[in-house]
Amino acid sequence: MTDLFTHLEWLVRAPGDFDQRLKAIAHSDTGTGAAFRALANHALDANQLTKLAKGIAKARAAGKSLEPLVPFKLAILSNGTIDFIVPALVAGAARHGILLDVVQPAFDQVAQEALTPDSAVNRSNSDAVLLALDYRALPIKSVPGDADASAAAIDGAIGYFQTLCDGIKRNSKATCIVQTLAAPVERLFGGLDRAVPGTLLNIVDGINRELVAYVAASGGILFDVAGLAETVGLADWHDSQLWNLGKFAFSDEYLPLYADHVARILAAIRGKSRRVLILDLDNTVWGGVIGDDGLEGIKIAQGDASGEAHLAVQRLALSLRQRGVVLAVSSKNTDEIARRPFLDHPEMLLKLDHIAVFQANWNDKATNIQAIATELSLGLDAMVFLDDNPVERGLIRSLLPQVAVPELPEEPAFYARTLAAAGYFEAVTFAAEDLKRAGFYQDNAKRANLQKQLGGVDAYLASLDMTITFQPFDATGRARIAQLINKSNQYNLTTRRYTESEVGALERDPAVVSLQVRLTDAFGDNGMISVVICRRTDPETWDVDTWLMSCRVLGRKVENMVLRELRRQARLAGVNVLTGSYLPTERNKLVVDHYSKLGFSQVGEASPDGATRWRQPVDSPEPETPPMKVVLVGLSN
Amino acid sequence: MDESAIYSRLTDIMRDVFDDESIVATPQLTAKQVDGWDSLTHIRFLLTVEKAFALKFSTPEIAKLQSVGDLADLLRARAA
């Protein structure tokens, strides 16, 4: 099963004509970014990753547009050799939609780079710094049985990490991504090593435990290399010969895996993690074909080997739903027959209540997946499609390349593991609201139904019994605010991304007016659904730096309520004019008319890239607002 | 595996690793004559050879290699 991780088996095998395809991209002038991403989306070996990275570097040097890849600058501080890692990271990042720029200081300059204000890393204006440290190059020694020396070693190491992160924070705007330490393979006593204070294993365990807590508390991002190494096996992970030859921290076999894991984290920071799992039913959610085998014939029972394999898929889907991933079904079946196991089979873990959109019909699956995306108001690039049938997988990959479609092994027992290993739903923060998110989308489906019944939008809005809450940014909301800022793509006027620590700084900035907006309605609590950041550009003007909203609450005129509140606060502060910009991206066409709909007037012409400027005096007529109760928290009336 | 087959495999691998379609593996060829063949790509090259020939070199074996000829000899000896 280690092949799953060495060969990234959830990805399609690298094409035989990889080199020719790479050349073809080099010779074409359009669609370069998308073509690199498509080629990167295969299980490439270390040499192929390196070639792809070279191709990307050449295209950049030639000044070609690499859109839709999103730029990210990562500095790496390591006490090992990262020369092989860098190109693998660039190619791995392209797989996840990121155009990666790596800042690589000289070998083993970790402390100098972090602590010197004008070091190459600190001057690089990186988005993040990866602290990739190996226990073999840290000043830790085995002190078996000496509890005090052991505790001092752990404290010393944590102090070192803290000093590095503080230095980076003080001297740059970068977020720290901190790796845990892969544990040593060689034991001293044997099984006792974990228990005896001062053995290397015991010290590394202690460092990792405290590191995890420190990173969480300091607003950094954790990269659990220790967990990765355990997953593939420590003895395979650590290659002593490679460490001796060139200080390579892990076996070359795992370069593609390591690169993919870093890329997932960067993609998650950029709000590119997936949000929806679309399940096929026959031979995926259960064994057999419901239309042929019937309720008694399909395999989902405990005690039956195939049944348990499919139950494991259901269990994973259910756990993902609990952490906020939305579930949908796409099955070629008669609707009534496909629903029967959900309703009547006692061993089914998944119930109809867990499925936000249920598409069982005889249309092709591309049409169905498109329909699911539309119904959920989410992009195709938020979707993962799990299907045992290679023909269906191939169809979706060719018609809807934005959808992630994992390869699956012959053996159903490994379906769940393969899906989990692919890491489509990587998260760098976890807020309490995530727990409710799958429910939100589902409630939305119910709301849409109610809308159909009522016919009129206004009557519908009135029937929703909505309460909107306005509050400036604060520490409690910070994680969710940062998450919205980094994830919202569609209803987002400027798509400016801020890290959690930058959001924290905004709370204290006297020139900044911020709003976190929550909405409850007859169906439940939608949680935080909108974020606004205004900057006072002169004594009379507030400029909207960021205005975003969750698409869950589209069509509720929440934006009108937000504008009314901004105008109210502006008048209280003696501000006369609100200004704002629309900065177009591939994904925010939804809000191209946001300001004109809200009664702003355009200032000047659109710039060549389509960006527009808008203004509104705060004594102009009030925007039309829906029936909604307003609650102010931490704001004067 | 005969000598010409070994050199032909090595040619393919070198073209792949050093990203240069004009390289031909010959007994006299050394790192100095190939663009981008430094101490790090040397390791990348040996790792790729190990994988292609399904064997592992020891650190002393690696230390003795001076030319592509040495590598081919080693591969032949190990295959025997």
Helix and strand layout, with pairings?
The complex is a heterodimer of chains A (637) and B (80).
Chain A: H1 2-6, E1 12-13, H2 18-27, H3 32-40, E2 42-43, H4 46-61, E3 70-78, H5 85-95, E4 98-103, H6 110-115, H7 120-123, E5 128-132, H8 147-171, E6 175-179, H9 200-217, E7 221-223, H10 225-232, H11 234-237, H12 240-246, H13 255-269, E8 276-279, H14 290-297, H15 305-322, E9 326-332, H16 335-344, E10 355-361, H17 365-376, E11 383-386, H18 390-399, H19 415-421, H20 434-454, H21 457-463, E12 466-471, H22 478-487, H23 500-508, E13 512-521, E14 524-538, E15 541-549, H24 558-572, E16 577-582, H25 594-597, E17 601-603, E18 612-617, E19 628-632
Parallel strand pairs in A: 1-2, 3-4, 3-5, 5-6, 6-7, 8-9, 8-11, 9-10, 12-19, 15-16
Antiparallel strand pairs in A: 12-13, 13-14, 14-15, 16-18, 17-18
Helix pairs in contact in A: 2-3, 2-4, 3-4, 3-5, 4-5, 5-13, 8-9
Chain B: H1 3-18, H2 39-53, H3 59-64, H4 68-79
Summarize the structure.
By secondary structure, chain A is α/β, with parallel strands linked by helices. Chain B has one domain (3-79): ACP-like (Non-ribosomal Peptide Synthetase Peptidyl Carrier Protein, Chain A), CATH 1.10.1200.
Descriptive notes:
The complex is a heterodimer of chains A (637) and B (80). With 637 residues, chain A is α/β, with parallel strands linked by helices. In chain A, 42% of the residues lie in helices and 18% in strands. In chain A, strands 17-18-16-15-14-13-12-19 form an eight-stranded mixed β-sheet, with helices on both faces. A five-stranded parallel β-sheet of chain A has the order 4-3-5-6-7, with helices on both faces. Chain A has a four-stranded parallel β-sheet with strand order 10-9-8-11, sandwiched between helices. In chain A, helix 5 packs across helix 13. In chain A, 45% of the residues are buried. Chain B has 80 residues and is mainly alpha-helical. The model of chain B has no long low-confidence stretch (mean pLDDT 92). The chains are: A alpha/beta (637), B mainly alpha (80).
